[in-house]
Design brief:
This protein is of the alpha/beta class. Helices cover 33% and strands 16% of the residues. The structure holds pyridoxal-5'-phosphate. The site of pyridoxal-5'-phosphate has 12 residues, from helix 4. Pyridoxal-5'-phosphate (PLP) binds next to helix 4.
Length: 354
């Protein structure tokens, strides 16, 4: 039986978390002089910004939990999902000793967060269809392998990882399995957060940065068992989600009914780009995508990247990533931005550029 306490670092099990003024007094009072705030007011327009925010974001979690179909006790909010990635590594990986495992090419922050925490990242390559091959795990998992990160839909390849592979790993790996679903809203697939009850070692990451259009706000979600969430709460900075972020997110959630329309429009843009780019001679391959971006293989990624820059179009050059030789990653833009990209690449073809 999985028990998160057997994975959590001994120093974290033993430590006492910071106890904030808001932790120590939770009732109603007429005078609050317990947190060294400025009781005269605020230079910010919103006068309530003189107070520290709710460290556990209760109002926000109740709303998100309702929309996502999870109990608020199964929800952690981070300063972007990047914060959750870092905290998960810190929670269970002993610096200089433990390992995490990823399947590449994939999102770069797993590597950065592992390096920052002096944790070894073992990298297994995805196959030619950018899928996980379970046989490649043979001999790669050790007693000090604490987390497997699976990004689905994967960045930068755009595809969903086969659910059978994810399920196999969840059933057979004794550590944490983190399924990063930053792009799940663009995919025709159910979130793994629906299966938390089945898999006590599962952590699902999602974010407000993509479909919700709130990258600047910095708000990420981790869904997991209440036991795992409690540990993340224990080690997080006390006020990691600002009041501004909480208010903006609560406001955006009121318009949640507009989300499907926005996603449908982005997915239509993806469909247009998929079809149009296939007709462009310098584009050799358009990989299938379940996300809001496409990975395309071109005749010469470096030259075409520079050429597009000259046209005022910035794409992401992924040519140096594993199995991504001559690949560019392009986000789905507005209709006119999508057309501008296609036209720029077509013009390049007419110049017989290769
Ligand atoms: C797969 C993946 N996970 C997480 C993130 C980070 O999301 P956030 O903005 O919530 O930190 C990104 C951002 O590009 C991403 O591609």
């Amino acid at each position: 039986m999985f028990d998160i306490k057997t994975l959590v670092r001994a120093n974290i099990l033993a430590m006492k978390p910071y106890s904030s003024a808001r932790d120590e007094f939770k009732g109603e009072a007429s005078i609050y002089i317990d947190a060294n705030e400025n009781n005269l007011g605020s230079l910010a327009q919103n006068q309530s910004f003189n107070r520290y925010p709710d460290p556990y974001q209760r109002k926000l979690k109740a709303k998100i939990g309702f929309i996502k179909g999870v109990d608020p006790s199964q929800l952690f909010l981070g300063n972007g999902s990047d914060e959750a990635i870092d905290l998960l590594i810190r929670l269970v990986c002993k610096p200089g000793h433990d390992e995490i495992l990823t399947f590449g090419p994939t999102y770069g922050m797993y590597d950065v967060a592992a390096n920052l925490n002096d944790v070894f990242l073992r990298h297994i390559s995805l196959d030619e269809n950018f899928q996980v091959q379970i046989s490649k795990l043979q001999g790669q998992i050790h007693a000090n392998t604490k987390i497997i990160f699976l990004c689905s839909p994967n960045n930068p390849t755009g595809n969903l990882i086969n659910p059978k592979s994810i399920e196999y790993i969840l059933r057979n790996f004794a550590g944490l399995v983190v399924v990063d679903e930053a792009y799940i809203d663009f995919a025709d697939a159910e979130s793994w957060s629906k299966r938390l009850a089945e898999f006590p070692n599962l952590v699902v990451l999602q974010t407000f940065s993509k479909a919700w259009g709130m990258a600047a706000v910095r708000l990420g979600m981790a869904f997991a068992s209440p036991e795992i969430i409690n540990f993340l709460n224990k080690i997080k900075p006390p006020y990691n989600i600002s009041e501004a972020t909480q208010l903006i997110a609560l406001d955006a959630l009121q318009r949640a009914d507009q989300l499907p329309e926005m996603i449908a429009e982005i997915n239509q843009g993806r469909e247009y780009l998929q079809q149009a780019l296939k007709q462009v001679p310098v584009v050799q391959k358009v990989y299938p995508s379940d996300a809001n971006f496409l990975l395309i293989q071109v005749t010469d990624a470096n030259k075409i990247y520079d050429y597009l820059l000259q046209q005022g179009i910035v794409v992401r050059n992924r040519t140096n990533q594993l199995n991504c030789y001559n690949c560019l990653r392009v986000s789905v833009g507005t209709d006119s931005e999508n057309k501008a990209l296609v036209e720029a690449l077509k013009a390049l073809a007419e110049k017989r550029f290769s």
